[in-house]
């Protein structure tokens, strides 16, 4: 299993897909990186030579902000929004959708499937004996 940026890359997948396991690298960036290093997109990650793996590591670590650094950057950005009292920061604090989605329905993902309506989660009436 090749290890790039502290992440084990799956061996049985194409390298284009395998690179997306690294936080901060999606499909378009993966294609761009492979084009720069001149590696075939359809090559399996288990078929990579040690030189190719080292080239990928060097390029990714020098040029792009990924994994821990990127997570830290995002966390700092959210903290800044909370500290200045911005609307988006308040939404983050309350655990509600930040980007203008409706909240009357369809926000179970953000809230963690909390059901707050009258009939939901009600126990059935006890049967008379």
List the helices and strands and how they pair.
Blueprint: E1 3-4, E2 7-8, H1 15-18, H2 27-37, H3 50-63, H4 67-84, H5 87-94, H6 108-111
Antiparallel strand pairs: 1-2
Helix pairs in contact: 4-5
GO molecular function: rRNA binding; structural constituent of ribosome; tRNA binding
Family: Belongs to the universal ribosomal protein uS13 family.
Keywords: Ribonucleoprotein, Ribosomal protein, RNA-binding, rRNA-binding, tRNA-binding
Structural overview:
The chain is mainly alpha-helical and 129 residues long. The protein has two domains: 3-64, Helicase, Ruva Protein, domain 3 (Orthogonal Bundle); 68-111, Ribosomal protein S13/S18, C-terminal domain (30s ribosomal protein s13, domain 2, Irregular). Helix content is 46%, strand content 3%. The chain is built from six helices and two strands. Strands 1-2 form a two-stranded antiparallel sheet. Helix 4 crosses helix 5. The longest helix has 18 residues, at 67-84. It is elongated, with a radius of gyration of 22 Å. The N and C termini lie far apart (63 Å). The model has no long low-confidence stretch (mean pLDDT 87).
């Amino acid at each position: 299993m090749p290890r790039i940026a502290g992440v084990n890359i799956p061996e049985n997948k194409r390298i284009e897909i395998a690179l997306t396991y690294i936080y901060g690298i999606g499909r378009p960036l993966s294609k761009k990186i492979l084009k720069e290093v001149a590696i075939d997109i359809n090559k399996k990650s288990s078929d990579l030579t040690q030189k190719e793996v080292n080239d990928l590591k060097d390029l990714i670590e020098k040029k792009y902000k990924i994994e821990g650094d990127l997570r830290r950057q995002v966390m700092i950005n959210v903290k800044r929004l909370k500290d200045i009292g911005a609307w988006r920061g308040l939404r983050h604090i309350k655990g509600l959708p930040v980007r203008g989605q409706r909240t009357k329905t369809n926000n179970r993902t953000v809230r963690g499937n909390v059901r707050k309506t009258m009939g939901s989660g009600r126990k059935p009436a006890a049967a008379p004996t």
